[in-house]
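Hello Y.,

Per our agreement to keep a running log of every chain we model this quarter, I'm adding this entry. I've kept the format consistent with earlier entries: sequence first, then predicted structure.
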Amino acid sequence: MTLVAATVSFVVLAALGTWVRAEASRLGNLPDQLPAGTLAVNLVGSLALGALAGTGTTAMLAVAAGTGLLGALTSLSAFGREVGAMVLGGAWARATAYTVVTFVGGVAAAWFGLSLTDCGC
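Predicted structure for the entry above:
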């Protein structure tokens, strides 16, 4: 993959990841509940990044797909904003549950994705 192709791929994939994340948040984040849309994209993104890491792909493809698509898809900033809003609203139990599920689930999803594709490289 040439540098120009990698750059164009990065931009297109980042736009796609951003759009999917925005739609997942719009459709899945309901008031006074765990933000299911953000949680879903973060877990799916972790699974996919783990799978990508196990393929032994080229560095340019890893940047385009890993950083472009999956980096735009997942969102630590949205997660932080949502946890902060829960804490400020007094929903400590929900904030704690969301934090634990996001981090434990994200690591487990990445490990599972890696185990599906690990090429031993």
